[in-house]
Amino acid sequence: MRLRYYLEHLVHHARPTALHARRYAALQRYKERFDPVEFERRMGVYMGAAQPFELPPEAVAKRDFKRTGGTVYWLDTLEFLTYFQPDARFLFKLGDDMTPCELPTIAKMRSMVDPTDHAVIFKLNKWRHFRFVRDRTPWRAKADRAVWRGLVIHDWRKRFVERTWDHPLCDVGQTHPQTDEPWCTPRLSIPEQLGSKFIFSIEGNDVATNLKWIMSSNSLCVMPRPKVQSWFCESQLEPGVHYALISDDYSDVDEVLRHYLAHPAEAERIVANAQAHVARFRDPLLEELLCIEVFERYTALSGQPAARRFAPGKSA
Question: What local confidence, expressed as pLDDT, does residue 81 receive?
């Protein structure tokens, strides 16, 4: 899968300018067929409260944009810079850094609890974060169990594991153990986790990596209210509608799990709603168009009206 990702990027950058121009024109025509309300709803998440601003000297031009962080972050950004002039300038924050952005900055995520964070959200590290599954096992046919595997490198994850690792309905454990804690357990593959009715999603350095594939499955996502916003529009997820809500101190895990075991129809309704949310991200043309639109609005807000490389409606 990763090899395919790199090959696709290689092919994209090898295309002549005329083909990129045609692609841009085709995407603009597609935009006319898409629901403008839904389009603006998603763009509202990505742009946040961004207002017109002046770029500082440290903003990088497209021609000078080099791989300074993870390769996939760089490639995911470079893919859409194809549609902009070489002197188009941007502020970037690549990686899992949750330091608030004082100025609008292209980044993978933005805090939902810190109003000083002005990150402009872009679809970064999509190879890792936008992985969906095909789950053919109905919710009622799965085991009466809640699972989670991950690294325990944050206080909130440690509290979660301490509260749940020995719960009779939970199979919870830390992978890559660094201590001799009793909750250190072997990894569970995604197919193995999908055998359970419930899968916990607990944020780590930023967003929870497993959230997307859980919500594409027939298992019920169980998590606290999210605090980090990404391309997946976490702020639009409603507790009791798209996921089963547990408290930040995890004190109600037993109550929540037993509630949904006693109300299977309610659990199945939430699973269906979660899958409907995931469906919004499965249209590759729309995803491509939204990525371009983020950069276009960013350049407009930063006073770069001529940054776009191709004019709408032009195919060459």
Answer: 87
